[in-house]
Amino acid sequence: MTSYTIQIWNQSQAARSYVLFLQQPELAAAGSPQGYTNAWATFPSVTNGGFDRITFDETIYAYWSEPPANGRTLSGGVALVNTQTHDTVAFSGGSPTGFTSVTSPGSAPPGSFAIVTGSDFTPSNGYVLGMARMAASPIPVPTMTFPALPNTISTIRPIHTYYVAVGDYAPGEVMDAGLVAGAAEIDFAGRAQTTATVIQHADGTFSVTYG
After folding, report:
1. How far is CA 206 from each of CA 14, 123, 179, 202, rounded to the nearest angstrom?
2. C-alpha triplet 180, 181, 182: angle, nearest 5°
3. pLDDT higher than 70, residue 4
């Protein structure tokens, strides 16, 4: 599997914290729940003239969490999935709570994976489901989450487009997706290059080069 690198170079004339997040995947689920963007990788206090970086691949995990602490920080579990084989993951809201099986090949649409829930919980349990990716730590970090509903098949099609914005977040923290408006966009699709360098300039704008 191809590895990619995103490096951030701060030339803004002041120390900045940056956050890396993904374009929300396509989500199809009963009730059309709202999907939330989660901070994926964070780069705190990058000095002026300094840089930081992350190297990753496109491995995908299904994700679940208990109700978010303080409404923002998530803690749960993952299951490795393969969108090429349309994997289907079963979630149990009973005891123990979590993913119980992965069916591969599964029944999700092409390029997607599915999470199937039963009747062993209610919306009031406050569980969330979603997608996670490996970031700077060996523990996968959620990149998109949505409220879990019982007796539902939710399909998720990842989109491998990335954004860098100024922001002080913890990995996995629910964030304001409106940051996309001023963020740097990184898309490796159709490119031979596997490294993107994001520069924030003195006027606050970003530029992206590939190498």
Report:
1. 14, 41, 13, 9
2. 95
3. yes
